[in-house]
Amino acid sequence: MNNRILLVEDNEQNRYLATFLLENAGYSVVHAENGAVAVEEAPQVTPALILMDIQMPEMDGYEAARRLLANPAVSHVPIVAITSYAMVGDRERALEIGFSGYIEKPIEPENFVEQIRGFLHRGKEQS
Amino acid sequence: MKFAGPLSEIRDGGGAPSLPLQLARLAQQEGRAARRSITERLTDTFRGYTHTTLRAGQGLNTLSTLRVAPGEIGLENRFPIAILANPPARAQAPAMSPAAPVPVSMRWRWVSIALILLATLLLASSVIALRHVEAKVPKAGGALEPEEVRLVGWYLFFAQAILLVVLAIVFAWAVRSQNAQGRQAASSHARLMANRALFEVITLNVDDLLTVADIRGRWLYVSASCARYLGPPENVLGQDCFEAIFPEDRDGVRRVFRAVVATGEVRQVRYRLRTIAGPVHIIESKGSVVRDAEGRAEKVVIVSRDVTEEENQLQSQRAIMERFERQNLAIAEHARSTEMLGDDPDAAYRRLTETAAETLGVERVSIWFFAENLSSIRCVDQYERSTRRHSYGTELQSHDYPKYFAALTEGRTIAAHASQLDPRTAEFARDYLYPSNISSMLDAPLRLSGRLVGVICHEHVGTAREWTPDEEAFAGSMADLLSLSLEVWGHRHTEAALCDARDSLEAKVELRTRELHEANAQLKELDRLKSEFIATMSHELRTPLNSIIGFTGILRQHLAGPLNDEQDKQLGMVQRAARHLLGLINDILDLSRIESGRMELHLERFRLSDIAREVVDQLRPLAAPKGIDLHATLAAGEIEICSDRKKCVQVLLNLAANAVKFTARGHVGIDVHTANGHVEIAVKDSGIGIKREHLDNLFQAFRQVDGTARRVYEGTGLGLYLCKKLAALLGGDIRVESTFGIGSCFTFLLPRELPSGAVGAPLPGSSPMTLSGLERGA
What we know:
heterodimer, A: alpha/beta, five-stranded parallel beta sheet, 5 helices, about 45% helix, about 20% strand, globular, B: alpha+beta, seven-stranded antiparallel beta sheet, five-stranded antiparallel beta sheet, 20 helices, disordered N terminus
């Protein structure tokens, strides 16, 4: 069973936090510092889920998602946005582009893993 | 006192100076009876006059007679009654006058005397013859008896004696008759004289000239009144009656005269006559024919009248009318002229001065305007008629010509006939009037809306000139026309100024609008920058908070290893502080969005019971430790509304959290029900309540009702403010009722349906909330 999760996040602390929670729950986490790296590495990683921060340097989450969804090799992988409540219209835009869902920052450690599990389950149902 | 013609004629005649002397002579020359008769007649005719005057003189072709009744002689106090006596020639030999009767009885006297003498001779011869016969008869013894002869002789004697007596009687009768006739003749002569005098009086007093000419036009008779025109009658009689007539008129008069003679009709003619003294008079004559016994035209009686004065009056009237006409025409033409109301005042000034100068025939006309304080006048145009040149610019100061300025400021027309002497204008005499030879000035004031603004000056050069009323009126009219022009120009100026002002106002408004637009754009940009800044800030703040909340969560879940109680307690404090900070950041972000109109609503249909339960569930961990009874009371049946669920929860959560926060014990209830087509969610508590005076401040940003409360109850002071804004954004409102110390009730009003187009429409009866966010978001 593929339990790889590609975490695209530029902030190291956030990356560590999410990684800690996910690995603690038994997932294998692969990191990408920004969208461009994610687009490049995703085909090799073949994750079960991509967690994508939106605001990142070099290539933001929207652009990265668009490219990933355009790539047949990874287009079936659900992408979940970690949206910041601060940015107006992020969620709508994210869903419009083709994100499978969104998780609001800040991450609630108490139910974060539950949310991820839900997305993975849904993605599995869809595929 | 009226002095009529005859009085002056005495003077003219030259006979006046020695009147008493002439009277004396007259007394000798004229018959007593005639004079008495004349005086009696005069007294009758002119009854009521104080004096009766007989008058004569060399020039009048009469004896100089003056009889003043009663008993006064003199030139003074005389009344215009004059009587002409006989002409001298006739007066000197009255018996030779053809008009005097030759007494018939005179011839009879001489015949009777001759007859008486003859009778006496016959008587004497018969006596002698008788004596001779008596002596012869006895001696010779003849045929007759001596006694018979004696008897015949006595018969003859007696016959002759009777004849003598008859003759004597006849003689006596003749003498008596002759005496009576003589008296009669004298009396009729006197009457004639009186009639003639009366006639003369009439001819004198009617002033008409009575003349008679023969049909060839030679004077047969001229009345005394003609003397001043033609000269003494004796020089005139027999002369050509056309001689004195003005050559140009002579033929015309002659034609009329011939026509009168030829037709016998009465004709009238007017002509100029050169009088004996020189001056030309205008005479009107009317001729009519007098015919002789056979009906042939014999004479022409001409009655003439001196119409010089009448003609002169007509002429002057005509002249006045012409002047009027000229003035009126000039006024009308100026009023119609393009210059008068044109755009060039200087052209109008020039036209006006020229018109006035030509019409009034004055040398200079000028227009002057006062300075604001009437301290000086300045010439805007002066026209000189002789040179046809205009000039301007002269300025006169009031302190130099105080009297003139005083007269000017009275505002009446200054008509100075003798400007060099007139007190109003004499100030100019030395420097201006004498050097320029100005004799008369006419200054008409210029008014604008009743205010004196200037003057139009007319200056006449040469001999002094009496300004006539019509000339003054004309000057006034021209001034009025100029005033009208000034008024129109003033209006136009005002209009132009208004136009300019309007234009500049429009320009200003446009500029201001543009500035406002720019400012608005800048503000929008600033607003955008602010929102961006807040968003960025909150993102940047959120990132470390993310870590704080996340790691404290991990630690407290013991995912990173076990914690002791103290560690867990302290990490709990960090977590609460971090969550509070996050809430604060989110509130600020919400406010910023609402105010910048970027707050988005996500409408969905949901049940109020759901959100009430959700809120109660969320707050239970807070209420439970204080022992507060937290519950939701739901009306029968589900209430479903269409609105932004998340924001409804946010508001309700905020209200309920507040209630829990400010309630130490008792209860906090959420009551959901419908009212008047909208829904109400009331949050009631048994908390500390709010003082009436603090209710007003309740919904203001960064304020808690009481500064002291702040220490006891944590909170940002943004909560209620944000709730009120959010409620308004959802088309609802928040109302509060509170009793201090007993508890509060916050009611969240919401429409059942919030159509996307009606976002932000406040509920009826709710206080209107003007939120920039709403306006911009709509």
